[in-house]
Structures are given as C-alpha cells and as structure tokens.
Amino acid sequence: LTGLPELCVPESLSVPPPQIVDFTAEKRAADATAREGIKTCLDPSWQIESVTEMKQSIMVGPQPGVLQSLAAQASSESPEAPATAFAAALANRVQGAGMGWGTLIHALLEHAVRKPDASASDLESLAQWLAFSDPELRPFVAEAVAVVGHVTQSALWQRVLSAEERYAEVPFAVYQEETSGGPTLVEGVIDLVYRTADGWEILDYKTDQVAESSAEGLVRRY
Hints:
Helix content is 42%, strand content 15%. Helix 3 packs antiparallel against helix 6 (141-152). Strand 2 and strand 3 form a beta hairpin. It contains 8 helices and 4 strands.
C-alpha cells in the first residue's frame, strides 16, 4: 500500500428516507404469479447425458460370428502373443497415472489409426508431448507406448487396418424422446469404428484396472 492515498472516511452519513413498499394483496398475488412463471421458465425441458454417466448399463454384444472369430484368434496365438500380453498389461495396476493414463492410451491409439505407418519413436514423441503438462503421467510414457505397440501387433489390429473405412474418436449424439427427466440427448465418443465386408464393427477401449488376466475374462467383464 506504499504510495497509495488514504481513504477518506466521513464522520457522519445521511441516509435517504425509507420508501413505502406496495405490499397489498394484489401486489403479493402478482409477485407470486411472476415467481411461478420464472420457475416454469427455469425448469429444463430437455437434458444432456453422457454415456459414461448413465446409471443403467446398456449391454450390447457383438454378433456370435464376431465373438467366435475373436476367440479363435486368441486361442491360436502363443502365450507370448500380443493379445495375451496386452491383456496382462491391462490387468496390472498403473500406479499414480490416474485418468491421464486412459487419455494417453486413447490418444496414441487414435494416432495409430490415422497414421498406420507411425513408428514407436513417433508414438513416444507424441506421448512425451501429451504428458508434458502432467508430471505424474510422464514416468508411464514408455509403458503406454509399449501397450499400444502390443495392440498394433495383434491380429485384430490388422483387421482394423484392412477395413474399407475406419474412424477414430467419433462423437455421437442420440435423441431419446421419452425419459424420466424429459427428452434427453445422450452424448458420447466411439473409440474406433470400422467397416469390413461383414459390416460395421466397433472397438471400445478399456484402460481401467481389472482382475482378469486372460482375453476371455476381459470379454466376460465388458
């Protein structure tokens, strides 16, 4: 406060005379009507809900043919195959990485979809940049790149790359007319969707901690 002028505090103040308030029965009734009108205007006529925040889980499984195909791929791979190694990596706890771990994996997989020729060095550079502002995430950059490497070496990923069309991190919104809270716009993001000769297929990445260490256990859980 050095150099600032001292505030001038007067010794006395004059206040304006009180105003007579109109509080007749007619005025009170008008005020109540106005308040009801404002309340009606403030009540939402629709709402937005995120897929991840929905209270009721919606279980939608792939066609049996797709499940059999994936099971056959898993059973034909050796114990050290990428799919098995990826399942084991998911089963391990990533201490201290928090939600940033999932965000990092999603971003790296998105880059791998858009740039199939991206090298491990490219992915590491991107991961370093993405983790630059998150000190707790930086120690896990090498592990994240390794996990994504396991995914991109799997037979399933080759199916993705050979698809006629593929799109990563696709936002969507579904309008639901009849819900308990009125019309609802359900929003979300599809991690990966691609079209093959058999039709469209969707991949949803899961990066949270799980107890299962096998591909079959992960399928049962999700």
